[in-house]
Amino acid sequence: MAPGSLLLALLSVLLLTLTQHTTDASLPPVPVQQPTRTFHASTAPLNAVLRNLIPQSLEVPPALSSTGLPSEDYVSQLSALHGENAIPPAKSKPIWIRIADEFKDTLVRILLLVALVSAVFSYMEMKEMAATGASSMKVFIEPAVIMFILVMNAAVGVKMGMGAEASLEALNSLNPSLTTLLRSSVPLPGSNARNIVPGDVILLKTGDKVPADCRILVINGGRLGADESALTGETDTVDKTTETIEGDDLPLQYQGNMLFSGTLITAGSCTAVVTSTGLKTEIGKISASVAAAKEDEEATPLQKKLDVFASKLTSIVGVICLACFFANANKFNDEAFGGSLMKGMLYYAKVAVALGVAAIPEGLPAVITLCLSLGTGRMAKKNVVVRKLPSVETLGCTSVICSDKTGTLTTNQMTATKIAYFGEHGVQERTVEGSGYAPIGSVENLERGVGMEGSGGKSCLVDFSQVAILCSDAAITGDDETNTFARVGEPTEAALCVLAEKLGAQPASSDPSSVIANFNAKKWQSAYTRSATLEFNRDRKSMGVIVSDASGAKKLLVKGAPNSIIERCTHVKLDNGKVVKMTDEMRTEIEAKVSEMAKTPLRTLALAVKTALPSSIKSYTGGPNDVANHPLLGDPSKFVSVESSLTLVGVAGIKDPARPEVAESINICTKAGIRVMMITGDAKDTAVAIARDVNIFTKEQVESGDYKAFEGREFFNLPEETQLNTLKSGNVVFCRTEPADKQKLIKMLQQLNEIPAMTGDGVNDAPALQQAAIGIAMGITGTEVAKEAADMVLVDDNFATIVAAVEEGRCIYASMQAFICFLISCNIGEIFCIFFASILGLPEPLTAMHLLWVNLVTDGPPATALGFNPPDPDVMDQTPRKPDEEIMTKWLLTRYCLTGLYVGIATVGISVWHYLSEMGLGWKDLRSWTQCGMKGYGGGAKVDCDALFSKEGRMVPQTLSLTTLVAMEMLKALSAVSVDNSLFVVPSWKNKYLLVGVLVPSLLHVFVVNARAAGFPGVSEAFGMVALDKRQWIKVLQFSAPILVLDEMLKFVGRRVNRANDLARRKARNQESLM
């Protein structure tokens, strides 16, 4: 086999080997055993639940619910059957696999191949130079530099990836390590939760985290509340019961007799029996979903585009290199190579490799990583913490944002926005100013102080404020350093406290936040003492307190559901202080007002008082903890009779208001072609109202009913084709969703080729966050699990921040496209330069060292600086890019081939100009330069071949070519501040970093050119450059300046191409929505 054929065969085998092994080397997910759930602990009778927990081989303890499991041997048998109450952590990838993953990128592999081939040729050249005694190690500079770049790029990637996939491990942090077990009738506080088995009886109280899924046996004190937001996404405390729930396969929200692992007891205490542990708990199932989502996780659009781009680049470069090599086959035996075929082949193989070096942007992987890192810094300033670098760019092509409601679209601060009470002429409704827990603002047409004793006289609003403050376990606190306010206790009660402050006296403007927070509440609390509490329960739907003033006189204050309270009211107190009997007309009027407020929708609470109390209560002198033996206050069944014959003092309308900036942000999304889907645990009416407030639905859509809103399983019960058609267009609202629904929606959107961004904060959101193209966790309310599964975290939990991040993502993509196109267009010019010189038989205008100098030193800083490009004026006026749209579109490829063609012509042209004009050589002689010194060359005249084509004679035209190339690339960099907008619209000085990025390499190049004159001859010699005179510098400018004019002309055409493409995308979307 000929040496050249052997070389090509070896290269082909090497390339094939490198490109075949592209499968993911990640470790398999933690094996999860999915139990068949034919038995439901929430819907089965308690006896059946207890029987189901104990295997047939063991007897059910006769009094399990009151004594717990018996002996240790009994527990050991159950433990052997069910295993440890823990979620196995996922195994971390070894470092060597992480490093190997960094070399899976197609472009990196191409660069690795170029480095290896270059190293082979460098070794051969070193042996040849060593034979002549010349210094030879510098020939390895090129492959060494490329390998250094690849190693550094891999190091950055490994560092960013370490710890990014810890979702399953974070689930364990939700499981409490200690709990109180009941075994053999003995409470065992401080027991290790990992040792719990199904059938164990546990004792829980306020503040405890639930260690496993449990069925409630006994509720102590009448009420048990749990915070299940981490699992269900609903922020309200869930009231629990011991009753068996009717139904089959109920969502978690409706399993009122169950407690779930990782949730929090917020009120009361109970005894419960464990029904599931470890991977069989609801959290355990989520861990399985997270693992499955990891398996389904797709490459980001950027990764896909770079792989496609690199594959095409490989094909194009391979063809060009081979064409260049074989086009010169007739010159392999030239006398210039001493008649040696091998030397001739080696020379032109090196030319082909130089062409490969010219075509491959060596610094591209590092510049992309750096650009994404710079983007994360800018996003951090916008309250977005990026955990996975590629997600920065993915945001730019987001087509659907699936958002939670609470805390993202809304403030997550319950606020009283309406108040209704009776005046002499019927029900009066007033709007309450302000939002959140800041007690700043007033009530429409009411003066401050109207709700305070003394200044408010005997108005019903005084009693209203008294109930709001004293019939509550909540409080508002203020932070003097940050001037912010927060709640302690239930959100609804906190909203009433804030309303009472707005009805009360006005604190001084100089008062600190800690004083303003409870300025009026402290006055009420100092004037009255709570004697007893009538705890809330589901039956009467109200809560009451008995308070005593300084004289010992007692008063009942009650708040609760309006339908329950109004039914028990016999009188009404007016705003002038009069108490009148409630007539049927008054009852109908206030009920109509409540119904009207509920449709807004507002969560309504009625407030009432009672002074005519039974004698046993009037004479009661104990405190809240002494009521057990009282005939009325100690018996919850008597609470309804105590809370009868009430006097209504008003109704409050409360809601979690929309963030004020969200409505405009969704308008921006609509303009940018981004659809918004709200996913919430709230009821449909509430969700639709918020959707209308924030412009997800228009007012006209809501009034006509022409909107897409689904409750519970309504959507997923539709035929699959109908589901997909529903998701194709428009904004959609999903209410009362189950934990797995988000992940289903993400998969369906991805099936429709959408790029969905998903927000989430709870444990239940982790699989969907992992599955989505962009998983966005909440920084304030988000669980650690959600944050670990997400690609980025919102510091302020604000939807408007997502939109700002999308704009930043689009800007980053535009910047990346600018520097990628800049680098590629430069390389296209270099390809044309070498190809023209090779095909025309001209002396090579650039060496491999020159090309490496251009690609790394003079191209690198401007390309990096392009990462700081300002956003285009129309960045949010365009529809999202298609996921499969290439970075280098057909138009851009055409455009940069045209500019590259000019770069190639100019670079070769100035070298030809030097030989023809300055050296007086003829065109024919120049093309046959390898024949120099032979008979007949130069028309028979004596020619100094060394002065023309060797040493310094070769350096002058190469310096001219290199300097012209550098000048054109600096001018193109200045023009690349925007890919399509003219320099007159987005001038270069909008990016100050770009000015520095162009100035520094320009000065560096000038220094190298003039290094010999500056006293550094070794620098000029190392790079093969010499100083230029004034005439030559002018000629460099003449050859390079036209590139700006050409680029402006092509931008003009490009803007029209983009408008046409954007219009086509919008039409395509509209047509899809009609299908």
TrEMBL record:
GO terms for cellular component: endomembrane system; membrane. Residues 38-123 form the Cation-transporting P-type ATPase N-terminal domain. The chain crosses the membrane at residues 106-124, 145-164, 309-328, 348-372, 819-842, 893-916, 993-1013. One of its GO terms (biological process) is monoatomic ion transport. SMART domains: Cation_ATPase_N. Its main location: membrane. It is a multi-pass membrane protein. Keywords: ATP-binding, Ion transport, Magnesium, Membrane, Nucleotide-binding, Phosphoprotein, Signal, Translocase, Transmembrane, Transmembrane helix, Transport. GO terms for molecular function: ATP binding; ATP hydrolysis activity. It is found in: Endomembrane system. PROSITE patterns: ATPASE_E1_E2. Residues 1-25 form the signal peptide. Pfam families: Cation_ATPase, Cation_ATPase_C, Cation_ATPase_N, E1-E2_ATPase. Belongs to the cation transport ATPase (P-type) (TC 3.A.3) family. This is Cation-transporting P-type ATPase N-terminal domain-containing protein. The lineage of its organism: Eukaryota, Sar, Stramenopiles, Ochrophyta, Bolidophyceae.
